[in-house]
């Protein structure tokens, strides 16, 4: 056993601590590892790391515990404190920055997420800058009490991460302004956003013993972030060159991003096929994709990292997940082209891609949007007489295909998790056991404010539990005080009460019982989909199934549908992100109480600034956000999708029920329950590994991937992903582990900072936009009736 540094605690493990071990392309396949863990470990970059001081062979890790004890050091210095002015100041500042930029990204033509690795490196740079202040007197020591440490860094990261979301509640507030001529008061709106964010926080906290603390809940998405924090704080001399590489790449991308974003937007999606044939809508649909809802972007090339890494850097994605994604992507192209050119559901009478509702009078030359005001009463309920007079609205064929494949994937995930991971999720239902139901009848159970188990009881249970994460065991052994469950229970109850009040204050039309049901779904789905994300790193979109349930519970009430979704779907999404960050805190050994503080502050700050930015963007870009294509800079496609589903599911009996026009949207839920079973049985009885690694829920979700947004970047996404995860990982493992994550973070960082600046400086984020002069590389896009990649523009779009 290597000698420990003074002041460091170490878990009681039999893993040598002298070297950080790493795995290669060999899979985690021993000692009963689940297929999810196996598929992650065989292909995720963090398990393929070479030794830090060699570009040579790698050591193999055989199970999840090996990952957590080899890739990440299981040692700690409990004397390091995150409770400094510096950590609080930078945490609040970066929380504001992250929430603002994430809300800006929400109104972009492609979904983009703020990178945690980017926040990690920026937080480190700012922390080290403040650490340069002298400590000559009490005032300076207040601002700089000691060298910037890993606990401060983690505190900053978790606060900023909790804020780096676009709250679903801002979607409905935007939809009310865009489509319902409603503008709830700022006070009620902010309380709505805060309560919807903290409900998921409370639920996630109460489930942390199931979804965070066990070893098997690896949350692989976090390993690069945790590894980076370790790298930055363990030996600065060793990492000097790596940080130099980071800043060089960061600076290059910071300057470069001005070119594809503003000066030369043709580089966002360059299609050789469209340049060769500029007067074919078929080419536009298949090869175009540089603007929102233009086309599928097949074989296009993108030089804009903002769009290439819009759903997360491909340099991080496990190769099995990347392969399943590629299969889904190819099937998506086949499916969408087949539905449109087969004219299924009158597809050719509507745009190839759109999230709006269309009138029955629409045709291939003039796309007639459905007049929503004609079927809504003054109270924003569905007017049956108006619906009868105007006819049942239509959806585009590609959007219907997206709903079908997503719905199948959603229920397939439930079955997949039960078949492959029942042992991991069944603990979430422990409260239904007879012994626990009996406890519900005892008065002592409800006196939760007394604190529950004693510290010694909790410590003994954790240390004797072989399923617990070694890092969590080490923290308990070192005396870190756990957050009592009643803290999370109080947050849950308080936010529940505030949410109940705000749904009436904003005239949501959602009844009290519907509000309660939405929160019950959030609780159950956080357990199921939280376990999925913890095991596989893949997050599924549950919004369609939540809106379907809302539609059948509240027929004829589109606003009630959207508010049900705010608390149902947003609770799930927010809960998953907060669980992810709880795992980060556990792996970097940040005390539970400081983690709780950081997440609470971050969630509240994010909610407030989400609302402020939404208000500003909707006011200044109102017309563009309501258009079908938007522009290459701004798009209302997320709000359009949200509102379309709310209206559509409010008339589910006429649109989606069995016998209706789009019956397969509902039937697909039932089909999804069956889809994973054959592959599971084939694997169980044949032991053929192919069936183990094909993840049908992922394939199904990506079969609807291209229904919206800028798709010209997908080809570049796969090329970069396979270069990093196959070539570099397999043939240059040392180079891969030293620079792959760092370069990816630098690409994210330089891009996101410049996009943030451009959004306000030239794209009209807070006022009038400033277009770059028109030239061959910038033809003006939709504003001039063109697609920026020179594919034929469909004039029927308006």
TrEMBL record:
Region Disordered: list its residue ranges: 1-27
Q: Where in the cell is it found?
A: Membrane
**Record GO biological process:** protein transport
Its GO CC terms are: membrane
| Molecular function via GO | oligopeptide transmembrane transporter activity
Sequence similarity: Belongs to the oligopeptide OPT transporter family.
What's the protein called, per UniProt? Oligopeptide transporter
The lineage is: Eukaryota, Fungi, Dikarya, Ascomycota, Pezizomycotina
């Amino acid at each position: 056993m290597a000698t420990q540094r003074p002041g460091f605690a170490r878990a009681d493990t039999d893993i040598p601590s002298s070297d950080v071990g790493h795995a290669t392309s060999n899979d985690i396949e021993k000692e009963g590892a689940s297929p999810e863990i196996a598929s992650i470990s065989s292909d995720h970059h963090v398990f393929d790391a070479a030794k830090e001081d060699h570009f040579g062979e790698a050591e193999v890790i055989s199970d999840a515990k090996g990952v957590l004890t080899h890739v990440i050091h299981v040692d700690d210095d409990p004397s390091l404190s995150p409770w400094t002015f510096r950590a609080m100041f930078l945490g609040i500042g970066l929380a504001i920055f992250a929430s603002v930029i994430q809300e800006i990204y929400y109104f972009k033509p492609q979904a983009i997420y703020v990178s945690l690795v980017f926040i990690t490196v920026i937080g480190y740079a700012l922390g080290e800058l403040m650490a340069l202040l002298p400590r000559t007197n009490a005032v300076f020591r207040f601002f700089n009490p000691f060298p910037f440490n890993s606990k401060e860094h983690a505190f900053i990261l978790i606060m900023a991460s909790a804020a780096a979301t676009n709250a679903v509640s801002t979607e409905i507030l935007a939809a009310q302004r865009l489509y319902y001529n409603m503008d709830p008061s700022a006070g009620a709106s902010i309380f709505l956003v805060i309560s919807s964010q903290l409900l998921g926080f409370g639920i996630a906290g109460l489930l942390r013993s199931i979804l965070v603390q066990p070893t098997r809940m690896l949350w692989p998405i976090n390993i690069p972030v945790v590894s980076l924090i370790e790298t930055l704080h363990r030996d600065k001399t060793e990492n000097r060159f790596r940080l130099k590489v980071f800043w060089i790449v960061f600076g290059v991308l910071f300057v470069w991003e001005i070119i594809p974003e503003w000066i030369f937007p043709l580089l966002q999606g360059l299609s050789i096929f469209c340049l060769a044939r500029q007067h074919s809508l078929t080419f536009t649909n298949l090869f175009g994709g540089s603007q929102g809802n233009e086309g599928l972007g097949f074989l296009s090339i993108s030089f804009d990292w903002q769009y290439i890494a819009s759903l997360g850097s491909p340099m991080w994605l496990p190769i099995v997940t990347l392969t399943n994604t590629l299969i889904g992507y190819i099937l998506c192209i086949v499916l969408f082209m087949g539905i449109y050119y087969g004219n299924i559901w009158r597809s050719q009478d509507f745009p190839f891609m759109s999230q709006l509702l269309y009138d029955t009078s629409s045709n291939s030359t003039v796309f007639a949007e459905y007049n929503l005001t004609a079927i809504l009463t003054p109270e924003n309920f569905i007017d049956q007489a108006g619906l009868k007079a105007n006819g049942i609205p239509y959806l585009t064929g590609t959007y219907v295909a997206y709903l079908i494949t997503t719905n199948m994937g959603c229920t397939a995930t439930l079955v997949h998790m039960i078949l492959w991971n029942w042992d991991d999720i069944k603990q979430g239902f422990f409260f239904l056991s007879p012994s626990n139901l009996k406890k519900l009848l005892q008065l002592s159970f409800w006196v939760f404010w007394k604190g529950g188990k004693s510290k010694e009881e909790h410590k003994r249970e954790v240390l004797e539990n072989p399923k617990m994460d070694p890092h969590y065991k080490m923290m308990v052994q070192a005396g870190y005080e756990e957050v009592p469950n009643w803290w999370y229970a109080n947050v849950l109850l308080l936010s529940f009460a505030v949410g109940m009040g705000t749904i009436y204050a904003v005239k949501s039309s959602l009844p009290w019982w519907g509000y309660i049901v939405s929160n019950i779904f959030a609780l159950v789905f956080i357990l199921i989909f939280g376990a999925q994300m913890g095991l596989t790193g893949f997050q599924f979109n549950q919004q369609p199934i939540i809106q379907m349930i809302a539609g059948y519970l509240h027929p004829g009430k589109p606003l009630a549908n959207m508010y049900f979704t705010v608390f149902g779907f947003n609770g799930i999404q927010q809960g998953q992100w907060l669980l992810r960050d709880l795992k980060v805190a556990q792996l970097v050994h940040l005390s539970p109480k400081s983690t709780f503080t950081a997440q609470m502050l971050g969630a509240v700050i994010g909610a407030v600034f989400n609302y402020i930015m939404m208000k500003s963007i909707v006011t200044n870009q109102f017309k563009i956000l309501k258009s079908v294509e938007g522009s290459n800079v701004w798009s209302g496609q997320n709000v359009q999708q949200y509102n379309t589903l709310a209206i559509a599911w409010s008339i589910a009996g006429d649109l989606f029920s069995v016998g209706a026009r789009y019956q397969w949207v509902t039937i697909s839920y039932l089909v999804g329950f069956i889809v994973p079973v054959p592959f599971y049985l084939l694997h169980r009885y044949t032991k053929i590994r192919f069936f183990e690694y094909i993840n049908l829920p992922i394939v199904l979700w990506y079969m609807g991937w291209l229904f919206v947004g800028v798709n010209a970047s997908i080809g570049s996404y796969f090329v970069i992903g396979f270069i990093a995860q196959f070539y570099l990982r397999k043939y240059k493992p040392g180079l891969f582990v030293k620079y792959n994550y760092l370069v990816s973070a630098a690409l994210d960082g330089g891009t996101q900072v410049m996009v943030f600046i451009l959004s306000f400086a030239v794209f009209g984020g807070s006022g009038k936009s400033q277009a770059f002069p028109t030239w061959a590389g910038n033809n003006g896009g939709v504003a001039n009736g063109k697609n920026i990649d020179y594919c034929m523009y469909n004039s029927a779009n308006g």
